[in-house]
Amino acid sequence: MGFDLTQEQEALRDTAHRFAVHEIRPKAAEWDRDGTFPMEVCRKAFDLGLMTFFIPAEYGGQGLGMLDTCLIGEELAWGCAGVTATITANGLALGPVLIAGTEEQKRAFVAPFAGTFGFASFCLTEPGAGSDAGAVATSARRVGDEYILNGRKCFITNGSHASQFTVFASTDRSKGRRGLSAFVVPRGGPGVSTGKKEDKMGQRASDTSDVLFEDARVPAANLLGKEGEGFRIAMTTLDYARASVASVAVGIARAAYEHAAAYAKQRIQFGQPIAMNQAIYFLLADMAMDIEAARLLTWKAAWLADRSKRNTKESSFAKAFAADLAMRVTTDAVQIFGGYGYMKEYPVEKLMRDAKLLQIYEGTSQIQRMVIAKETLMR
Question: Which residue among 74, 75, 126, 362 is the active-site one?
Answer without folding.
Answer: 362
